[in-house]
Amino acid sequence: MPSVLLIWNPFAGSVSQRRKEVIGKALAADFKLEEVETVRRNHAGGLARDAVDRGFDAVFAFGGDGTINETAQGLVGSDVALGILPGGTTNVMARSLGIPTDPIEAVAFLAGRLRSGTKRRIDVGRIEDRYFLFSAGMGLDAEVVKRMEEHPERKRKYGKWAFVSSALKAGMTQYRGQDPWIALTVDGGAPEHLVLAICQRARPLTYFGRFPVDVCPEAHLDEGLDWIGFTKVDAPFIPRIIWGIFVSRSHVRWKTSRYFHGASAAMLQASRPLPVQVDGDYIGDVTEASVALVPQALGLLV
After folding, report:
1. Using an 8 Å Cβ cutoff, are 7 and 62 in contact?
2. Closest listed residue to residue 227, CA positions, set 295, 141, 135, 145
3. Is-contact 192 229, C-beta < 8 A?
4. Is the pTM above the cut of 0.90?
5. What are the structural domains, with CATH classification, of the chain?
6. 234/177 Cα distance (integer angstroms)
7. φ, ψ (nearest 5 deg) of residue 242
8. Is 249 left (phi over 0), alpha (psi -120 to 50) or beta?
9. pLDDT of 50-85, one tens digit each?
């Protein structure tokens, strides 16, 4: 009988005790199950590493994209499969992989994959010592994530509109008219001088309700690292980027944009400490960060 560790984050957006109990009963019917809840930031990674050491067959993570990212930290490079149970407010990774967004439906989907041994190995990205599954960024996008983490009550109360408000405020104040303060070097090429830089491993970057936010429209889980950056943020930038992302996809061809598809490595260097995010989690302000593709590093139940 396969063994499963269920890691769940009780503070994630759509996680509840009732749902966790239903999921636990469903898994216990077919697998040798242990359950543990996270109690602090980065706790899930340590729990996942322990599951690898103890010989579990799979780790199911029930939480948002941050919980999924933390869990993956402990599984990269191992044969233990990751099962994603969407329990956040956006659930980007689950949706991009076609996993049901209802966690009760998702557990049946993942259990079937585990019983049949259906597992897909994927590349992951690494920024310094932190792995990411679908996105990383320095500058404006990370600034928005940072502000949301500083004011979690806004996120709970206003949802996606809190992100919009923070993006407008940061874009029209701190980033508006700013000279490029990031040098992005991709695969050893010439540095591009940018105000913000975003890396995607898969599409989309996030969702606005049911609409995908397609910042890197050529990104694919099996095709390396896609980068987009902008040399200028001015008053028209926010409405133009919204139009470009949701309608025309023209933002990748602007004179002020720089786009790279299928990269394997990059270096970010900033003239002052700037915020960095991975999979929608703020991880700190830095002046330099190396980014690399780690091939075939993680097994997913999909």
Report:
1. yes
2. 135
3. yes
4. yes
5. 3-118 (3.40.50.10330), 130-296 (2.60.200.40)
6. 6
7. -60, -45
8. left
9. 999 999 999 999 999 999 999 999 999 999 999 999
